[in-house]
Amino acid sequence: MPRFTHVHDLVAPEPPDVCELAAFPVAVVPYALAALEHRIPKYIWDSASYVRGVQLIRSLQMAILCGGMVDLIESNDRIYRMLDTALYGTDYSVISTDPLVVEPAIEATHALTIEHPDSLLGRAEDLRQLLQNGLNGTATTLYDRELGIRDLLELIKAAVEASDTLDPDMLAKLAEIALLLG
Asked: For 70-77, what is the mean pLDDT?
């Protein structure tokens, strides 16, 4: 019959604890937990390391049971909130840290609405309206200039054609600009 020797006088490492994400097949989890439970008795640990060793064993058991999913999900939520704030301008606020409660809650979908004009989509909409109004004179929500660049070029072209001093090079360049814009 084989003889088993028990490890004893183990010394637990000091903090900080560095963690790794490990995947266990679900069928193996009870065996892994039971194997760790055999490292709990006091005679295995150095007397100064017993409490710390038990804490490490229990934290490892919890990590096996949870699989680190809570940290991963919260990390994904932080990334979503960061992108949501940058793109749409949604303002999030932390209600409590333990447990973490952030409002508003993350919805399954997001409506394509601009919540703040300083967001990326808000600034893109501002530029779109500026371009429409500046080129065409189209009245938008933010800009209402009556004449756009195209209209002003047409007025300059008409004024140059109506005057007695018709510069053919200037007229050709204005016509070229008007064609590029049109």
From this structure: 85
